[in-house]
Amino acid sequence: MKVSVILPAAGLGTRMGKTAKKQFLQLEGAPILVHTLRRFSGIESIGEIIIACRAEDMDDVRDMLSGVSISKPVRLVEGGDSRQESVEHALATVADDVDLVAVHDAVRPFADEAMIAKVIAEAAEFGAAIVGIVPVDTVKQVHLTKIQTTISRDRLVLAQTPQVFRTSLLKQAFEKAHADGFIGTDESSLVERLDAVEVHVVPGGDRNIKITRPTDLDLARHFLAEERAS
Q1: How wide is the angle at C-alpha 224 spanned by C-alphas 222 and 225, nearest 5°?
Q2: Reported pTM
Q3: For 90-115, what is each residue's pLDDT tens digit?
Q4: Which of 8, 66, 78, 194 is deepest in the core (most CB within 10 A)?
């Protein structure tokens, strides 16, 4: 089984409130992007990692990777103005003999190896699988500032990444989205429109955070310190 990993890393990181883009911010001596790359190094089935970044960042990313030991081949493609465009550009370069494509947020540096292996195995069996967690807070549906209803958490999942799909299925989903002018918030939302397979959910984890705000960076430093201590 061949698996390609796509890391969309073309985001501007406006919510971080810093001049540096969040995927390039330092986390205990290494950029967040490098920490994320290392999470996929030990997965045997992964054949390559594709980073979709902005054209003006490519030289910086190459310099960043030149001094880092990653056991998987890493290549760069030019991303787009949105996450969906970036993944689409990277997906177009994936060979047809690759069985599965995993898409993972470049700023989720704490996806553990067991979870990655499990979601890949689930997608290999069923064609589509994502990582997700059940919300702990009560969820309200609102209109403007007024509550319309309370939504049962029993049927809700907060989607995380990796999200893994059969390569041909994901390419078909992107082709349909492009034709329809549909913009999704994640890859699963595109695949769900096909009605071709059911997308399975593998339990994620509280540590599989997406670093988008300064407080997330503080939490990431805490997690990393705990990992190193243990």
Answers
A1: 65
A2: 0.94
A3: 999 999 999 999 999 999 999 999 99
A4: 8
100-103 and 46-53 strand pairing: unpaired
State the total domains in the chain: 1
Range of the domain at 129: 3-229
3-class SS of residue 168: helix
Q: Who's near 22: CB < 8 A, 6+ residues apart?
A: 11, 13, 16, 32, 107, 211, 212
Q: How far is CA 229 from CA 31, 151, 224, 225, in A?
A: 20, 40, 9, 6
145, 46 contact by CB (below 8 A): no
* CB neighbourhood size of 89 (10 A): 18
Strand order through the sheet with 158-166 = 74-78, 46-53, 3-8, 100-103, 158-166, 128-133, 200-203
CATH number at residue 108: 3.90.550.10
- For the chain, the residue count is 230
